[in-house]
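During the no-cost extension, the postdoctoral fellow (Dr. R.K.) reprocessed legacy sequence entries with the updated structure-token encoder. One reprocessed record is reproduced below for audit purposes.
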Amino acid sequence: VQLQASGGGLVQSGGSLRLSCVASGSIFGFDRMAWYRQTPGKQQRELIATISPGGSRGYVDFAKGRFTISGDYAKNTVYLQINSLKPEDTAVYYCSARPSRGSPLWGQGTLVTVSS
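Re-encoded structure tokens follow.
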């Protein structure tokens, strides 16, 4: 399975974006799908949110309130809605598929740039 993230772009502070992650095959077999981001100057990707095939969602603290993860598993697609964007949200956003065993799969990221 390959993952392709899209939907990034340049937006003004306060705006919204919906990122999409389309998989080339079924994502039902993965324990969780996740969104991460890597901000400029940081080497580590930070987790934003996860979703399971059953619809269970989890968010890290900074993501609660402005970020919403959702999935259309019939379309092999996971979304990340980001509202009230801030300049500090500028990052490359990645989706990831976590199997029950083995390493997660990663897609190419999509760049989100928030201007002040």
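The first strand starts at residue 3 and ends at 6. The chain has a mean pLDDT of 96. The remaining legacy entries will be reprocessed before the final report is submitted.
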